[in-house]
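Throughout this chapter, every protein is written as a compact record of paired, labelled lines. The reader may check this reading against the record printed directly beneath this paragraph:
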Amino acid sequence: MNQALPATTLSLGSLESPIDNARLSILCGECHRNIKIIEEELLIKCYQQGSDFVLQGKTDKTEIAKRVIRKLYTLTAKEQILDDSQIYQVINNLSRDDQDGEFERVQAPFKQVVAKTKAQSEYMLAIDKFDVVFGIGPAGTGKTYLAVAKAVQALLEEQVKRIVLVRPVVEAGESLGFLPGDIGQKIDPYLRPLYDALYELLGVERVEKLIDQKVIELAPLAYMRGRTLADAFVIMDEAQNTTVAQMKMLLTRTGFGSKVVLTGDLSQVDLPKGTYSGLKHALTILRNVKGIETRKFTGKDIVRHPLVQRIVDAYEKHDRNE
């Protein structure tokens, strides 16, 4: 043990006595793999002595490690194995400075969705309060998934009569006319992330039934012209890939009793060179319009593998330097 670094001891005996050795084994993982992940992510050293853990490193990091180990041990009460994603998620969540207080949550038939960061919680509250909400930030911050969860909640509580999920189709330079199949087959790859969120929250059978009944509609942005969307919860994903005209067109489709959520990442614009993003334009000219709110996410709000957060942070640092 490096005597130059401060050390502290966590005793799981304070949580449960006697300690369940089987759960302790699940906590540590095969060949102490789980403990090694904690060490690497928090830049500490962790020495196990039975049900005690000696933690050595910077005080703020060892305090986080204590919370992580306690949380993981609690999870072993119902888990036979802790996979890497669970461990990274716990570390990511408990490493934040905004963990105090109750965060917003949505109870869907198949899953309860709980905001994991302050920004996510404020985003969910904004969706409740405002008619039009922009959710801006990098991949992995939950902006689209949470919007879908709020749409499901609004539908189940009969606040709206239908959900309309929209995406611009610009990837790979293909147009719908040249893609094979009918309209459903043409747009399916572009809307797959929205399908996946719906399936997770409502179940496959119920989603398919609601789609057949036109209660849930999934459509490319190009097919929204000329429509008025009343009593609908509208989500436009990948809004950074709209043109100025397309953005104006969608926003002016809003009808009475409707709510519109637009999500996007301004660092991932796939529009042809020289085409100005409708999302960037809208954020500028609509910032003081009553009834419209913008919520921004940063790399700290990423709830995927911590490596994703580090990648996003590296790109953001590069962009600032440029």
User: Anything to note?
Assistant: The chain has a mean pLDDT of 86. The chain is about 40% helix and 15% strand. The first helix runs from residue 21 to 28.
